[in-house]
Amino acid sequence: MARKENAPKRERRERGSIDPEEIIKGAFELAEEIGVDNLSMPLLGKHLGVGVTSIYWYFRKKDDLLNAMTDRALERYGLAAALKHSSDDWRTRLHDHAHAMRDVFLKNPILCDLILIRSSLGPRNAQLGALEIERSVENLMREGLSLEDAYDSYSAVQLHVRGSVVLERLHEKNKAEDSAAQAYYENLIITPDQTPLLAEAAAKGRVGGAPDEQNFEYGLSCILDHTSRLIDEQKNAPTSAAKRSRSATKAPATKAAPRRRAKSAAGS
User: Fold this and answer.
1) Bias category Basic residues: which stretches (predicted)?
2) In the Cβ-directed half-sphere of 217, how many Cα atoms lie within 13 Å?
C-alpha cells in the first residue's frame, strides 16, 4: 500500500530574514484559515517558516500582534472612509454612520473579532476612535442637545450597532463549530394555533430578536426618533420660558388696576 505523501513543508527561514509587515500579513492569512481566537505565535511561526523567537523579536506578546493587526485592518477595510459624514442633516448623517459601521464589520469578520470582541486597539487608533466620538457628540450639541443627551444618544447608536454585529458574528462562529447550532430565536416553536400573532409575523418575514436588517433599522429609528424629540424640546424650551416670563410681568399690572379704580370712586 503506497504511503500518502505529506503536504510540502515550508523551508525554515534564516533568523532576521522576516520583518514586522510580513509577520502581520502572515497573521491575517492564518486568521482567515483558523480564526483570530485560535491564532498563536507557534502556529504563526510554522505558517511563516520561522522560529517563534523571530516573531517575539518584534512582538513581545500576542496582544501586541493583535493591536498591530487591528491597525492594519482599519486601513485595509476602510472603516474611516466609510464613516465620513454624508449629509448636513444630523439624522441622515447619524443613520448613514450607523449603517456604515455595521456593514463594514459584517463584511469583515476579522475586523469584528479584533475590535468588537477582543477590543484590540493600539494607542493611535484608540485615539482616533475617541476623536470620532467627540466629533459626533459635538455635532449633536450643535443641534441644541445638552452634553448628556448628545453623549447618551450617540452611545445608544454605538451600542445598537455593536450589539447587533457581535450577536451575528457569535452565531456564525457557533455555526462554524457545529453546523446544527441554532440561535434562541431559531429554536422558538411557532404555530398558528398556539402563537397566531408570531405565526403571522413570521409569514411576513419578521424574526423576533434576530440581529437582521429589519430589526436593526427599527431599533435605530427608535433611537433617532427619541433624539429628534429631545432636540425639538430644546428648541421649544426658550420660547416657552419667554412666554411665561412675559405673563408674569403683566400679571401685577392687571391686579393693580381695580384698586386704582376703587380709590377714584371713593374720592368722588
Assistant:
1) 257-268
2) 5
Quickly count: other Cβ atoms within 10 Å of residue 183's Cβ: 17
Tell me the Cα Rg of the chain: 30
Q: What is the pLDDT of residues 154-208, one digit of tens each?
A: 999 999 999 999 999 999 888 888 888 888 888 889 999 999 999 999 999 999 8
Cell of 88: 448636513
Global confidence as pTM:
0.75
Q: Where are the alpha helices (DSSP H) in 143-212?
A: 147-177, 184-187, 196-203
> Which set of grid coordinates corresponds to residue 252?
401685577
Range of the domain at 17: 13-60
b (16+ CB within 10 A) / e for 127-162: eeeeeeeeebbebbeebbbeeebbbbbbebbeebbb
- Bigger pLDDT: 60 vs 16: 60
pLDDT of residue 84: 67
- Which residue is it, cell 514586522? 20
In a domain, 99, yes or no: yes
What CATH number does the domain containing 189 carry? 1.10.357.10
Is 53 a domain residue? yes
